[in-house]
Amino acid sequence: MTGQAPVGSLEPLQEFWLCGLQSKLALNERGWLQPNDDFWRLWLARPELALLEESCPAEIALHQALLERPSSSQSALLAAIADEDARANYQFFLRFRDDVLAAGTLEAAYLRLMRQPLMLPPLFVEGLVATIAGHLLAGNVDAFQVRAAELLFRTQRLSLTEGRLLCADLEGLDSRQAAAGLLDVLSPDNAAEFWRRGSAQPFALDLTHEVSNALGHGMSFNLTLKHSGLKALAKVLELWLGRFLGRPLKITALQKVDDSAWSWHIGLDVDSMRLLNDLYEDRPVDAARMAQLISLFKLELPGSYPKPIYLGLAMSSDKSLKLKPQNLLLNLPPELALLG
Questions:
Q1: pLDDT tens digits for 59-80?
Q2: Pair (197, 213) in one structural domain
Q3: DSSP-derived pairing of the beta strands 293-301 and 305-314
Q4: What range defines the domain where residue 217 resides?
Q5: How confident is the model at residue 338 (pLDDT cuts 50, 70, 90)?
Q6: How many domains does the chain have?
Q7: Burial zone of 206 (CB within 10 Å; 0-12 exposed, 13-18 middle, 19+ buried)
Q8: Of 104, 136, 168, the domain-final residue
Q9: Structure letter (DSSP) for residue 204
Q10: What does the pLDDT look like over 298-311, one tens digit per residue?
């Protein structure tokens, strides 16, 4: 065995995120991203496909051939790779590459994978999401939106600290805890430091709607957070869905839904979808599950859909969050459906 990590392992996707942020890919007439040889070389540089000292001659030859011509077919060399894991990793990569090339753009390939899954490891879909999300935020100077966009492709850990709901990158949090470090919470005061540090020392994002301040004598007031990460996330979701729908829309963070004509909802993760389904059907929801709800959002599409569509975001029982951006595309009303 070569010891190579399987393609499904959760390695950081910073290279694809940066590729999008730096706008390294050309656009087609629709403005969608076209893969190029350098994009495929990013995949070949990942640990799942990188050469090791014990790589066999066929693997070395295949890797070098793909680096020189990433779109070429090398079936003979692939079949000759001695290590089973290494051979499987290249098979996954080539299947994915061929599907993206057939689709023509990253966005079209993403929609195709949502419609007809190729049974590929999640890493490939996440790589597409990271690149597209990076492009959406290219040139954006709002640190809160850029940090919020990472939720589209990186698992988060939630914690309640002094009445504030903080969202930290799970892998970044694990590495900082291992080094006995503390995560900083992104704020207007340290936004410049966010740009300097990047993902090397990630910031937590405050997902609190408002903070309650006690004034004494039984008095208190609620302070709405001007720089809540929820507002930034709403904008990111707006950009994401708008990328595929190609029509005006607005997404706003809400604390509650007070709508007797509530007709459509979408959960942005597994837990919120189940929770919203139960609330919609008037099934009982206990306090523990309600406490998992992070936020609600209202999606409005003027001139395209007459009623608000409500979105939910929730943490799992272990306080992790795996946002699924594909849910916004898979679960639209039939009149707006992108995927048949």
A1: 999 999 999 999 998 888 999 9
A2: yes
A3: antiparallel
A4: 143-224
A5: confident
A6: 3
A7: buried
A8: 136
A9: B
A10: 999 998 899 999 99
